[in-house]
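Please go through this chain and its backbone structure tokens and walk me through the local backbone shapes. Keep your notes short.
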Amino acid sequence: METKIESNKLIYRADALERFCATVFEKLGLSQNDAQVAASALVAANLRGVDTHGVLRMPFYAAKLRQGYVNPKVELKPLRETSGTALMDGQNSLGQVVAYRAMEKAIEKAGVSGISYVAVRNSNHFGTCAYFAMMAIPRDMIGIAITNGQAHLAPTGGVTKLLGNNPWSIAVPAGRRLPVVLDMANSVAAMGKVRSAIKEGKPTIPGDWALNSEGEPTTDPQEALHGILLPVGGYKGYGITLVMDLLSGVLADSAFGPRVKGTDTVAAVAGVGHAFLAVKIAAFDDVAAFKSRMDDYIDEIKGTPKAKGVTEIYLPGELEFLKERERREKGIPLPSRVVEELLTVGKETGVSLE
């Protein structure tokens, strides 16, 4: 059920959105189980406040599935494998399901070998890295997820888009404290935020987000959409995004750099590369002792003297956990334009949005 909260936003329950997305995915050829995995990953992004990677993406995924640019049948094909590593072929299947299965494999291997590395070729956009890194937390493991993507950044000093934003996440469990979950792309703002600004009708974006196609700073979201995203930290962000592509696309012999084409474009096969790592804490120390150290460190950080005007110091991922708690209780707000697009997808597939 929807509830109006603002002139341009509606609130939906997480379970209603998840049912809608799962049913649409099934109508488009995914198995019931795979459809549920994909829907859960999408709605989890909205719950944590990462709306740029949530149900806003549903029309895009639906179009790629309908037009045959994504394979609805998910069956990871092993290409190389050792006790602690694997190279898998995603066979152009939906990224969320490929990533989920690959992270399951990484966790399984780390349970035996202590640490694992699973690389994936020929996949697609998988949404938020944190969702997959966090899969390791209930198993008392540290999870790491990396992916490459369509080129939106230029190397420092250049004006040609050669590099993806190539996000990555590291999730570390704690004890009585919340896990520490770092999830970041390597630009000041993700292209999804530019698209969100356009969908919400915002005339401008911050001036440090992007350059236009001529390499000049811009506050116009349309110019930014066709321009170049700026890396966080200048040349350091450029270096990080390059290395993430090396660890995913290049290592997996998947598409890399400007060869990744279909994470923002419907009419293209993406060839995305991923990497998933799991670290079994018990292979290094007693789990309870590790979690106690984590709690002590978090206590120290949060208890440190605060700058003027600051009321709380947050750890990476903490705000997202708080946002999830709030949205599970109050619902997920969606811009009216996003709702309209979901309704269109529902009409095309015969699925109603409750």
User: Anything to note?
Assistant: The longest strand covers residues 115-123. The mean pLDDT is 95. Residues 60 and 265 are 8 Å apart (CA to CA). The radius of gyration is 20 Å.
